[in-house]
């Protein structure tokens, strides 16, 4: 994949750094060992965070700041990483979807970065561009129907939007049949080492839980 960070994103987040992780995988409906890891992380959050203090985690705070700079209310259109940690703090279980999605949710909550996971076979073209959602731009969020992405950071392929920090698009969503996985890690706080560690952690999870082959990643700005 080629990843382009647009000037409109650079204008509101000049220190942005991302990572693109790519691997051949085997998905499954459920993984008990993975869910043991998720529940262990939930216990850590419940003991150490509140719904207010989680907003101060640097990666989450930076994503909220970019939302505001783009004109979006982060408390109404909550970034997914924040929403997931918030559920855990409130004592609620995460939604169990499938191994790949559950695995990426874990990677997102551990590091606090916005993460998008995609079935790369459904991309149109070989280039993704990170921009800002426009008024009236059509976008079908996974399980959400049509949503308003005006003012949200959005990745677009040759056909249109595929991912935002609030929800990825139905067209390129991960399926049980997914074998070609692409994951995008968004470091709106500009912490290159944090993004690198997040990408390496994702590769570890892929190898542990999704029979990963040929896994690799690269950073982009």
From TrEMBL:
Pfam hit, one: B3_4
Signal peptide boundaries: none
Organism lineage: Bacteria, Pseudomonadati, Bacteroidota, Bacteroidia, Bacteroidales
Protein name listed in UniProt: B3/B4 tRNA-binding domain-containing protein
Residue ranges annotated for the B3/B4 tRNA-binding domain, each copy included: 61-211
A GO term, aspect molecular function: RNA binding
Organism: Segatella bryantii (Prevotella bryantii)
Superkingdom, natural source: Bacteria
SMART domains according to UniProt: B3_4 (SM00873)
């Amino acid at each position: 994949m080629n990843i382009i960070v647009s000037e409109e994103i650079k204008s509101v987040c000049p220190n942005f750094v991302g990572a693109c992780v790519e691997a051949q995988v085997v998905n499954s409906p459920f993984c008990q060992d993975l869910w043991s890891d998720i529940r262990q992380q939930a216990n850590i959050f419940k003991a150490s965070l509140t719904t207010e203090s989680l907003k101060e985690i640097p990666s989450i705070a930076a994503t909220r700041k970019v939302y505001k700079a783009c004109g979006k209310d982060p408390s109404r259109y909550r970034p997914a990483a924040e929403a997931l940690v918030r559920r855990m703090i409130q004592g609620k279980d995460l939604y169990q979807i499938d191994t790949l999605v559950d695995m990426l949710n874990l990677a997102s909550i551990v590091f606090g970065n916005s993460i998008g996971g995609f079935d790369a076979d459904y991309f149109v073209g070989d280039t993704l561009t990170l921009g800002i959602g426009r008024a009236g731009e059509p976008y079908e969020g996974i399980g959400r129907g049509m949503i308003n992405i005006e003012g949200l950071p959005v990745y677009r392929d040759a056909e249109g939007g595929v991912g935002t920090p609030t929800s990825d698009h139905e067209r390129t969503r991960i399926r049980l049949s997914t074998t070609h996985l692409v994951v995008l890690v968004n470091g709106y706080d500009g912490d290159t080492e944090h993004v690198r560690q997040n990408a390496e952690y994702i590769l570890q999870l892929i190898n542990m839980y999704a029979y990963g082959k040929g896994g690799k990643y690269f950073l982009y700005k």
